[in-house]
Amino acid sequence: MNALTEDITALIQQYVSYSEGMNFTGKKAMWDADDPAPLLMPEEAHSPLVGWDAINTYWSKSRVIMESLKSQTANHHAREIESGIAIATYDMRWIATMTGPKDTPKKPLSADVRVTALLRKKPEGWRIFHLMEGPLDLMSMARKAYSQKARNLFPEHTP
Known about the structure:
The chain has about 160 residues and is α+β, with helices and mostly antiparallel strands.
């Protein structure tokens, strides 16, 4: 792994670690605060969230509807596409527990997504200004889900 990929991987891992405590202030600190129109495209959003008002509103709603959120990343790649601008890609698995009635058992939701981020070199280090999540295609998600279910039901028959 080259030095650029190592630096950006560390930033991404810090960014997603803030999900555990629903620390959106920490997540925002990983973004370029000077960018007037940052873009965040979560996989569940119907259109890109452009600008701080839209992103802050999304994060505020996330605090209300999610009880917990955890994310893991893998397969990080980064390269500088011009001086001070880098593109990064990685795979991410998120697991969330949604809020609901106190008597109802909580069942986590999970998904695997591919992420592309654009980052700008700032005096404090690399900072995100564009982040887009893309879900895996439905057939791949279904195969993974059925494969996991088979491993859970019949662990003695799976490698």
